[in-house]
Write a structure and sequence with these properties.
The protein is an alpha/beta fold. It is about 30% helix and about 20% strand. It folds into 2 domains: about 20-130, Sandwich (Immunoglobulin-like), CATH 2.60.40.2030; about 170-460, TIM Barrel. It contains 10 helices and 16 strands. Helix 3 (about 185-195) crosses helix 10, helix 5 runs parallel beside helix 6 and helix 7 crosses helix 8.
């Protein structure tokens, strides 16, 4: 009887042994890891419940819409092997150090394909790359963009080569999509696509620090030495007579620009601050105007501290309203703290008239501010309505018959004193929307409109007229 019981016990042990081996598991040691940006690599540890026998598990990393692959980290995948008697093993994720002030960023990682063990939680985790950079306090007022050779005429843009976004530029994306099925149209669109585009950020930019930092990192990686052009459109333009933003909205506006400035950090960039900010100011109530000035002064104070940003504030257009009012507004918002102002951003006024308007403002402001003129769609000048009382001085929203103006350049004739550049601040071909369009069938605001872009190209006049 005892022998029979012993045999049964031995049989049970033999059956239980494989079951125990099959029950062995492997997992990550945490759901959250962190590494300093300058550490070189992050070490991720995996652990199994039993050290008996050999084993393996595969690993990988995934984009998390925060840290950028090949910019902030090196995408990796592979296999971790366990030797008999080994309970823990590890793999590494290479981390790229840079000088960008971008805040902490994250990347997803995980394990899969274990053998002969089973996966156990946690199998997924996030790695936080801790930013160790700060915004520089050093600024060269004569060469803030770090150009080589350095500017010699007081124009910080002299000799700058501006970034052409060949991957995500509005015209570039459309031209690329048409190159096989409509190569003729794609070739025509290259007239716009080959020029530097001014990238816009605004009320639709939910995470300004991350989104501007991501764009600038990509621009720097794609074309080192090219200077990105960016513009902002953060204000909400309401009906005339409105008191403008509430205290909560003002606080949100100021916070947005603080985060935006953090994202720019030490990057060299040309910034056209707040399109339409001042051209709509006469429409505000007395209280609303005070609120607007407070918002602009705060943002300009923030942006003026950036070491390698050349900043211009919106100054409306020469065919818009009273010049003396605009000069007062520029003085009140603190134009003297930045490089100067830009004009014509949402108009198609003649370049020569805008130069006269800007020169008047410069003289009124003591001769120091510099300026930039938008020439994206003014090659044929403005479309002037017969009834100006009803429609204003010009039709601006998708105005028919317009043409591209002078191409973007910082190499302007020295006779135009204080004129730093002619830039396509308004993106040619971008629809102004359906509500105010003078052409039927306009696509939604911000969409690239091929037919309109082709009209601008057909009517182009690149001379300074």
């Amino acid at each position: 009887m005892r022998l029979a019981l012993a045999a049964i016990a031995a049989l049970l042990l033999a059956v239980a042994a494989p079951a125990a081996a099959q029950a062995a598991t492997v997992s990550l040691t945490s759901t959250a890891y962190s590494v300093r940006e300058n550490a070189g690599a992050a070490t991720i540890t995996v652990v199994r419940s039993s050290a008996s026998g050999h084993g393996e598990v595969r690993y990988g990393v995934w984009y998390d819409q925060s840290a950028q692959p090949y910019v902030d980290y090196q995408p990796v995948s592979g296999r971790v092997d366990f030797a008999d008697g080994q309970r823990t093993a590890s793999f590494q994720i290479p981390i790229h150090d840079d000088t960008d002030v971008e805040g902490d960023e994250t990347v997803k990682l995980g394990i899969y394909g274990a053998y002969p063990m089973q996966l156990a939680e946690p199998t997924r985790a996030r790695l936080t790359i801790v930013d160790d950079d700060t915004i520089s306090s050093t600024r060269d007022p004569l060469n803030p963009l770090g150009l080589s050779p350095a500017p010699t005429n007081g124009d910080p843009l002299q000799g700058a080569r501006f970034f052409v976004d060949e991957q995500w530029g509005l015209a570039n994306r459309v031209a690329d999509s048409l190159k096989h099925r409509d190569p003729a149209t794609a070739a025509k669109l290259r007239v716009i696509a080959d020029q530097p585009e001014t990238k816009r950020f605004g009320s639709w930019t939910a995470n300004p620090q991350h989104e501007i930092a991501t764009f600038l990192q990509r621009a720097h990686t794609t074309d080192p030495g090219a200077i990105p052009l960016i513009a902002t459109y953060r204000l909400k333009h309401l009906q005339c007579g409105h008191v403008s933003d509430s205290p909560a909205e003002v606080a949100a506006y100021k916070r947005w620009y603080q985060e935006f400035a953090q994202g720019i950090g030490n990057h060299p960039v040309v910034l056209f601050y707040e399109i339409d900010a001042l051209i709509t100011a006469p429409c505000l109530s007395h209280t609303g105007l005070k609120v607007r000035i407070d918002e602009l002064r705060s943002a300009i104070a923030t942006l003026s501290t950036l070491p390698h940003a050349v900043v211009y504030v919106d100054a409306g257009a020469g065919d818009a309203h009273d010049k003396s009012f605009m000069a007062r507004m520029l003085r009140w918002v603190g134009v003297q703290r930045i490089q100067g102002f830009f004009t014509n951003s949402t108009h198609q006024d003649w370049t020569s008239k805008e130069i006269r308007y800007a020169r008047w403002l410069v003289r009124k402001l003591g001769g120091t501010p510099h300026y930039v003129i938008n020439t994206a769609a003014n090659g044929r000048g403005p479309l002037i309505p017969k009834n100006r009382v009803r429609y204003g001085n010009s039709f601006r929203c998708n105005a028919p018959g317009r043409g591209l103006g002078p191409k973007p350049t910082a190499n302007v004739p020295s006779t135009y004193r204080n004129l730093d550049a002619l830039i396509w601040i308004g993106n040619p071909g971008r629809s102004a929307g359906q509500r105010c369009s003078r052409i039927a069938g306009a696509p939604p605001t911000g969409s690239f409109w091929v037919d309109y872009a082709l009209e601008l190209i057909r009517n182009a006049d690149f001379r300074i007229t």
